[in-house]
Request: fold
Amino acid sequence: MNQTTTKAAKGRVQRRRALTRTKLLRAACQLMSTKGIDETTIDEITNTADVGFGTFYNYFSSKDEIATRVLDCVIHTLGRRNDLANRSAGVTDPVFIIANSVRLVAREMMTNPMWRWWLKRTDLMVQRMRAGFKAFGIRDMKVAIEAGAYEITDGDLETAWSFVIWLLAGSITDIVEGYRPASTERLMAEAVMRVMGVNQDLARRVSAAPLPPYPEMEIDFDFELIET
Reply:
């Protein structure tokens, strides 16, 4: 077998592995988003993906690991959906862009059963959200600062970003567990704006504004989070 043939064979193997991995992730997401993570079994995932049970362990060590990879893909797609929602609605004000994005993610977390499992593991969930949404969030924060819309204390974007994620995670946990009504979502968004140095009146107004329609978007299961 010559070098060209060997490379072609390796390429086919890699493509098959990537396809199987994607099938497993897609099946897991479908099941976990319908019935929750606790009620989803590895056997159901492999059956839905139409692969052998043992094949699962060639790609993932446990249900917890595939749940984490699914979450990374979902978070990445939510970030892209937020961009599309704001762009399609013609939203250009950086304050509204971030307020809308926070509220759209909050509503997804409140309605998708998959998130209930993660809301009971707040430290792990925050870790994935902080890393997964970071590229979108830090980008939007920088745009807002340049436009004079945000005043971050000491210019510390990393700390401000961490506060945003903890506010979001804590508020949605309280709502889902019944401690606070769903309307608390707006107070959470207002608090996020205040962390960014937005004055109270504007923070309250943008947090109560009608949200843009949330467009459908296929989840990118080829995505792999590289933490920075």
